[in-house]
Write a structure and sequence with these properties.
With 207 residues, the chain is an alpha/beta fold. The chain has one domain: Isochorismatase-like (Rossmann fold, 3-Layer(aba) Sandwich), CATH 3.40.50.850. Helix content is 25%, strand content 23%. The chain has 5 helices and 8 strands. Strands 5-2-1-6-7-8 form a 6-stranded parallel sheet. It has a two-stranded antiparallel sheet with strand order 3-4. The protein starts with a strand and ends with a helix. Bound molecules: zinc ion (ZN). Zinc ion (ZN) binds next to loops. Zinc ion binds next to loops.
Length: 207
């Protein structure tokens, strides 16, 4: 049973948004083409309260991209993004969300950030995603979305660690920083993650 996880395909993460990933919008048609090739599609959604600790604006004297200690964890400070109920937090309107069976919201606790769709960055709280996938009989997980070296990367590492056969569909993601993403992919491979292209899935289904 194969699941596709759409990570944070939200307005704030594409060009024009508050925390734009270069070419983030280019993944939308690629993702839309993939949807029908999976048994199950789920999505994660970054969903911060206004007072979230990852926002530079909530730390007087600090700037975006400064690194601080947030309740014992290293935290990069971001521009305000994906504020609950805002336009920026909505899924990109051209993304076909009809096949999405469940949405897992993350980053809702102001005291801790959550890059992975499975756990917060301190691994204290689970979103329930792993149990949901296991409950549905999923054994293979394919991950797409934004941004490659952050939320996609951490979602993938947790999926692999939770025992799922895990794949990154590389042309259905974009990073903030290409070099960091290359490093992240090297680490993924070492953890047994398989990196493929969307064409591999489309071809496979033609057989
Ligand atoms: Zn966030």
């Amino acid at each position: 049973m194969k699941a596709l996880i759409l990570v944070d395909i939200q307005n704030d993460f594409i060009p024009g948004g508050a925390l734009p990933v270069p070419e983030g919008d280019k993944i939308i048609p690629v993702v839309n083409n993939l949807l029908s090739h999976f048994d199950l599609v789920v999505a994660t959604q970054d969903w911060h309260p206004r007072n979230h600790g990852s926002f530079a604006s909530n730390h007087p004297g600090k700037k975006v991209y400064d690194v601080i200690d947030l309740n014992g964890l290293e935290q990069i400070l971001w521009p305000d993004h994906c504020v609950q109920g805002s336009k920026g937090a909505e899924f990109v309107p051209t993304l076909n969300t009809n096949p999405v069976e469940a949405i897992f919201r993350k980053g809702t606790d102001p005291a801790i950030d959550s890059y992975s769709g499975f756990f917060d960055n301190g691994r204290k709280k689970s979103t329930g995603l792993a149990d949901y996938l296991k409950g549905r009989g999923v054994d293979e997980v394919f991950v797409v979305g934004l941004a490659g070296e952050f939320c996609v990367n951490y979602t993938i590492l947790d999926a692999a660690e939770q025992g799922f056969k895990t794949y990154l569909i590389k042309d259905a993601t974009r990073p903030l920083n290409r070099e960091q993403f290359e490093k992240a992919m090297q680490n993924m491979r070492q953890k047994g993650v398989v990196i493929i292209q969307s064409g591999d899935i489309l071809k496979e289904s033609d057989k």
